[in-house]
Write a structure and sequence with these properties.
Elements: H1 2-38, E1 45-46, E2 58-64, E3 78-83, E4 88-93, H2 97-102, E5 113-115, H3 121-124, H4 127-136, E6 143-148, H5 157-167, H6 169-175, E7 186-191, E8 198-203, E9 206-212, E10 221-227, E11 230-234, H7 242-247, E12 253-257, H8 262-267, H9 273-283, H10 287-297, E13 301-305, H11 314-322, E14 329-331, E15 336-340, E16 345-350, H12 378-381, H13 388-402
Parallel strand pairs: 1-16, 4-5, 5-6, 6-7, 11-12, 12-13, 13-14
Antiparallel strand pairs: 2-3, 2-15, 3-4, 8-9, 9-10, 10-11, 15-16
Bound molecules: zinc ion (2 copies).
One zinc ion binds next to α3.
Length: 411
């Protein structure tokens, strides 16, 4: 009996000791975790919606950096510029780029100012999606597009935007009375493509200027945006030109196109050699030419884009540029971010929100006028399959939950 009691007591003591040691160990690992958290290095990533801009800061995000045809890894040209004063500007809205824009979860009322460099679809192809889809996503304000005239009226931005509205006519008419009318206003600010360094926008301390670019036909332009002592330049598509060399001086950031090599166009894109040489060096800017432009301009930071940044392509582009330029450089892919202040330029990648939802507008939603609403004809409505009962249950459920009293339109 006695020895059994002793064994029992010893067992309890060992058990207690074990728990004490375990909890001590746990405390130690908790401390370790704390240390790791305290000493975590900067991940070099920008999480959308997680950082306020400083009042003197500019944030630039690449939304599209690739080619005219679709590719999951690179949308066509689009750049977002956000300023510490709250203003936001889009430069080009190329095909595929609005998915990247949406991943930032910025309210669409802040994404209603677009400056188009030229009317190639890889620079404006997603305008219908931003113009109409932006309203479904919560935009209540009119949509503004700035862009150049053409060598004839039907090659200018105004003609293009007027006909974009016709392209989406069925869509617009069907949404009349269902969404705020003023959000569907498309206001085009066309300017003479030949005017040099002239102001096309000036508001709230922000000045945007344009000058001619050399690209295929007359019409393309380049832009600068100046605010609070910072200067951003977006070249669009262009052969290296004297206007860029004059008006892009003293810039903090210069974004300029930079094509892949003629050999890449022949071998990977299947271009015949004559076309490869024409497209990659005569219609556009080669890496070697890009470097020469930047060596003359000497921006605080140069950004090259308009290529596929594959592992076997990027080194050749870098080598080409480095033959003629040794200054600060980014080879841009989609969803990179540049935070620019007078003291510092910080380059990171965006960690996009893959399953993003539109953020609500902070502005009051304008009153709705649904008098002009168009619905299906009686002939078409006569073809409904009977789900009246099922829909009535949904109406009852929602009315009960939200204290409303709505009736289904189709009975
Ligand atoms: Zn282009
Ligand atoms: Zn182009």
């Amino acid at each position: 009996m006695k020895s059994r009691t002793l064994i029992f007591a010893a067992g309890i003591l060992i058990g207690i000791a074990f728990i004490v040691v375990l909890s001590f160990k746990n405390n130690q690992s908790d401390d370790k975790i704390k240390d790791v958290a305290l000493n975590a290095r900067d991940r070099g990533v920008y999480f959308p919606n997680s950082e306020d801009l400083a009042p003197d800061e500019m944030r630039i995000i690449s939304l599209g950096t690739g080619m005219p045809y679709g590719r999951r890894a690179a949308a066509a040209t689009s750049w977002l510029v956000e300023l510490g004063n709250g203003d936001k500007f889009l430069f080009d809205v190329g095909t595929g780029s609005v998915a990247n824009l949406g991943s930032l979860e910025i309210p669409y009322d802040f994404l209603n100012k677009v400056f188009i460099s030229h009317l190639h679809t890889d620079h404006m192809g997603d305008l219908p999606a931003l113009y109409v889809g932006g309203v479904v996503g919560g935009r209540t304000l009119p949509f503004h597009v700035w862009g150049p005239s053409g060598d004839q009226e039907n090659r200018g931005t105004k003609y293009s935007m007027d006909h974009l509205q016709e392209f989406v006519r069925w869509d617009l008419d069907g949404r009349t009375g269902r969404l705020p009318a003023q959000a569907f206003e498309l206001i085009t600010h066309e300017f003479d493509f030949m005017e040099e360094n002239h102001v096309v926008y000036e508001e709230n301390g922000v000045v945007v200027r344009a000058w001619p670019a050399i690209h295929i036909m007359d019409g393309p332009v380049s832009y600068s945006l100046e605010w609070n002592g910072l200067k951003f330049v977006f070249g669009g598509d262009t052969y290296p030109n004297k206007w860029m060399d004059m008006y892009a001086r003293d810039a903090d950031i210069v974004i300029h196109e930079c094509m892949m090599s003629a050999e890449t166009a022949i071998e990977d894109m299947g271009f015949p050699p004559a076309r490869a040489l024409e497209v990659m060096t005569q219609i556009h800017t080669s890496p070697e030419a890009f470097g020469k432009v930047m060596s003359s301009l000497k921006p605080r930071h140069a950004i090259a884009y308009h290529f596929f940044r594959d592992f076997n392509i990027a080194p050749g582009i870098n080598d080409g540029i480095r033959q003629t330029y040794d200054g600060p450089l980014s080879l841009a892919g989609d969803l990179m971010v540049w935070n620019v202040t007078k003291e510092n330029i910080r380059v990171r990648n965006v960690a996009p929100i893959e399953e993003a939802w539109p953020s609500p507008t902070p502005f009051p939603i304008p009153p709705m006028d649904n008098s002009g609403m168009i619905t299906e004809s009686e002939e078409i409505k006569s073809g409904t399959f009977d789900v009246v009962q099922e829909n009535q249950m949904i109406y009852d459920r929602v009315n009960k939950k939200y204290g409303t009293n709505f009736e289904p339109r189709i009975k």
